[in-house]
Amino acid sequence: MSKQDRRDVAVEGSKAFTGIRLAAAPSYAAGLPAVKVALDHAMKEMGLARSVATLSKLNQVEGIDCPGCAWPDPKKRSSLGEFCENGVKAIAEEATTQRVTPKFFEEHSVIEMSRWTDYQIGKSGRLTHPMILRPGSIHYEPIEWREAFELIARQLHDLDDPNEAVFYTSGRSSNEAAFLYGLFIRAYGTNNMPDCSNMCHESSGAALGETLGIGKGSVTLEDFEDAEVVMVIGQNPGTNHPRMLSALQKCKERGGKVISINPLEEAGLVRFKNPQELSGVLKGTALTDVHLQVKINQDVALLKLIMKGLATLENQHGGVFDWDFIRAKTQGVEEVLSDLDRYSEEELLALSGVSKQKLDEVIVLLAQKKRIIICWAMGLTQHKNGVDNIKECVNLLLLKGSIGIIGGGTCPVRGHSNVQGDRTVGIMHHVSPKLNASIEKAFGFQPPNKEGLDTVHAIKAMHEGKAKVFVALGGNFLSAASDTHYTAEALQRCEMTVSISTKLNRTHLVTGKTALILPTLGRTEKDHKNGENRYVTVENSMGRVHQSHGRLDPASDQLMSEPEIIAQLASAYFKKDSPVDWQQFGTDYGLIREKIAEVFSGFEDYSQRSGQSGFDLPNHARQGDFSKMPEGRARFSVCGLPRHELDEEEFLLMTIRSHDQFNTTIYGLDDRYRGIYNERRVVLIHESDAKKLGLQKLDKVDLVSCYDGVERRAEDFLIVPYNIPQGNLAAYFPETNVLIPHDQYADKSHTPISKSVKVRIEKK
Ligand SMILES: Nc1nc2c(c(=O)[nH]1)N[C@H]1C(S)=C(S)[C@@H](COP(=O)(O)OP(=O)(O)OC[C@H]3O[C@@H](n4cnc5c(=O)[nH]c(N)nc54)[C@H](O)[C@@H]3O)O[C@H]1N2
Ligand SMILES: Nc1nc2c(c(=O)[nH]1)N[C@H]1C(S)=C(S)[C@@H](COP(=O)(O)OP(=O)(O)OC[C@H]3O[C@@H](n4cnc5c(=O)[nH]c(N)nc54)[C@H](O)[C@@H]3O)O[C@H]1N2
Ligand code: SF4
Ligand SMILES: [Mo]
Question: Same domain for 473 and 589?
């Protein structure tokens, strides 16, 4: 065998095709096929006993909080199980019986593993021991916990400036872990806290903060029962938030209407067979009343069309806009209404690509309704104008007086199960003088006042050698971030990269000079200490905080909980030289919760109130109270149209999730709801666009982006003709992240432009 060194590590995995099958997309989501797929996954990964132990407690009161998405649990839980197919897949992925042991690392070098697909890497199983990849070595070897902490502490001390370290967070960590992590990072002396939100709902936080004064949504789950209209924009709930379909079903049963705005007609939004109800399994509910097939990133044009139509009706008959609300609670309406006059209907219709007839249906539907909820996700946030996309939704809701009422409001549907909580308890690269003052009061040290790095700027800093240590609490930074090859170089230039992880992923293989893997407990596992089974707490997408209790024996007796790992690292770094007693926080999470309650408002009697179905955090937008805004009012915003200067042969590509993945974790190779089986390297294209390029179904192509004269190439994709607007393409991430330049991101929020990448297609 030829001698290999670290330079041979592959940044992208195997691109070999896996044997595609295409079929018609199903006419409904969920139903019995979902139950079957879920059970197959559970049995294959966990076996019967572990399946029963986990699934019977999933999302039940004081059970395991689903590690999938952040959709909330209903107050009344179903006895048939309160979870979905993808919740089961998330559990099975974590509670798998496969193990990545020291022997595994002895047998497989990082070079060999780097050539596997993400699917193969993930299927290797749970990490069992702390491991180290020493400089120059291509095999990880075991390391004692104590030695690992000492090594990291020494490396952190060796930096010239704490701002040369970067501390990433992914949204699965508990409030307790995230708070302690943020505290350690601030005590160490930096605000370099990029987190997965930066790539996700940061645009929502920025837009909602500026317009309504709170970066979170205003509705509760119960509001769906009272809503007259729910608009689902740029979101695929059938796959990514499956139990949201039950909420839409309830809304429909009470006479509500559902409007979907999406370049794809996602199966999950068409018809839903609720597996938790016998009648649902048999009949199903038609969910979408009107689907507007908008072109990629033309939502602002479409929302302007809707508001123009409503303004015309208001001028004719009145009663369409809520002037009492607008006058009492908002500012800036005149500018927004006069700005609408600058655009012609023809121009906006051509941009948005929707039919006039369907548009009129939506305008009529909205005209007389007030209880309107707008839900959205990555289809709105991951564009250059992501923040404006959301501000335009807020404009519509403010015109209708739909915020701060029962059955109406904003609903950014969050991704990871605790991504919202992590932010609430202090994972934030921006400086908050108020938070710094509270921390100083509670802990007796002064947190740093220099702005920290977000995800895109952290990557740049590492690439430029300005940041040298990368620590990740969860996640898979390399595969999740844009510009995979640039991000790889950034990580490889670091002195040290550290991952606190449950499962093996690509970020463990493309590393700094020294790399450490610190294996941690997952949500499903018992967290025993001093005879006590500890629990953690999380916040769902609607601001409710509750407990999660692990139920399974840990994957290995070497695992440490996330709070304990952070506490040990902090102790190794500070020794005795800190006003914070880190060790006791690592032991007693109740103490962490007491401190959270001291630092943040709304957490009074935290431990006790988080029991049963938990408690709601304060939310002034939900109460319709905008008195804390600078002018005491909610703000309308004038938003421009996005500009995409596309060359003749260029398309706009959205990089989306299949039904068989959780971000960079690939559960399987099928995208059942889109009729695509056993292949991920596909590109969805309109039939007429394919024809124009002389392309046939399953032809092999490369996707190529060209920004600032630099060509980036995603090789080997298969053409799949699909019902998608002309000029638009769709393909899965993370395979397509190689195409997205690291310096292309949203204004203000800095979220990468994952949903509007300019590419051309090259036939092979
Ligand atoms: N099973 C599963 N669940 C998940 C995840 C997962 O990977 N798997 N990920 C979790 C995370 S972290 C997140 S953030 C969420 C993501 O949840 P989603 O945002 O639903 O996920 P995406 O697949 O990125 O889908 C974006 C949707 O927006 C549409 N879209 C794209 N561009 C546009 C546009 O310009 N305008 C409009 N109107 N629509 C557009 C796409 O067609 C697609 O339906 O899901 C969470 N839940
Ligand atoms: N092109 C493109 N890129 C995108 C997106 C897109 O739509 N298009 N979406 C973006 C979005 S919305 C997001 S949120 C990011 C996701 O970015 P990340 O959060 O970084 O990625 P994940 O795939 O969710 O992380 C999976 C890894 O987390 C670890 N893990 C799982 N559970 C736990 C746990 O309980 N504790 C710890 N410590 N580790 C755990 C496992 O090792 C697993 O391999 O990706 C972003 N990237
Ligand atoms: S909707 Fe989300 S949180 Fe609920 S069971 Fe499914 S994946 Fe888990
Ligand atoms: Mo996300």
Answer: yes
Please tell me the total count of domains within the chain: 3
Residues 587 and 476 in one domain: yes
331 and 372 assigned to the same domain: yes
State pLDDT tens for residues 272-294: 877 777 666 667 788 999 999 99
% pLDDT > 90, the chain = 87
Query: Is residue 468 included in any domain, yes or no?
Result: yes
Residue 581 shares a structural domain with residue 477: yes
Nearest CA to ligand 2 atom 11: 200
Q: Is 239 in the pocket of ligand 1 (CB under 6 A)?
A: yes
Query: What whole-number distance in Å separates Cα of residue 572 and Cα of residue 693?
Result: 60
Distance between CA atoms of 422 and 137, rounded to whole angstroms? 35
User: Is omega for the bond preceding 734 within 30 degrees of 0, making it cis?
Assistant: yes
Give me the residue label for tokens 């699909």. Answer: 722
Q: In which band, very low, low, confident or very high, does the pLDDT at 144 lie, cut at 50, 70 and 90? A: very high
**CA of 418 relative to ligand 4 center, distance in Å:** 11
Pair of tokens at residue 526: 């018992």
Count other Cβ atoms within 10 Å, centred on residue 604: 9
Query: Does some domain include residue 550?
Result: no
pLDDT at 120: 96
Question: Residue range 520-540: average pLDDT?
Answer: 94
Do residue 451 and residue 579 come from a single domain? yes
Ligand 2 centroid to residue 762 C-alpha, Å:
30
DSSP string, 293-344: -PPTT-HHHHHHHHHHHHHHHHHHH--SS-HHHHHHHEE-HHHHHHHHTTS-
Residues 236 and 260 sit within 8 Å (Cβ to Cβ): no
Q: What is the pLDDT of residue 147?
A: 98
Q: Is the CB of 378 under 6 A from ligand 2?
A: yes
Tell me, yes or no, whether 312 lies in a domain.
Answer: no
- Specify the ligand 3 atom closest to the Cα of 70: 3
Is residue 75 included in any domain, yes or no?
A: no
Question: Which of the four pLDDT bands, split at 50, 70 and 90, describes residue 79?
Answer: low
Q: Which domain holds residue 131?
A: 116-200+425-524+557-601
Which amino acid residue places its CA nearest to atom 17 of ligand 1? 240
The residue whose CA is least distant from atom 3 of ligand 3 is 69
Top-confidence residue, 475 or 269: 475
Dist. CA 471 → ligand 2 center (Å): 15
Q: Which residues have CB atoms below 5 A from the ion given as ligand 4?
A: 200, 415
pLDDT tens digits, 164-187: 999 999 999 999 999 999 999 999
Domain CATH number, residue 440: 3.40.50.740
Predicted local distance difference test score (pLDDT) of residue 42: 84
**CATH code of the domain in which 280 resides:** 3.40.228.10
CA of 502 to the centre of ligand 2 (A): 12
Q: Is 70 in the pocket of ligand 1 (CB under 6 A)?
A: no
Question: Would the pLDDT of 1 be above 60?
Answer: no
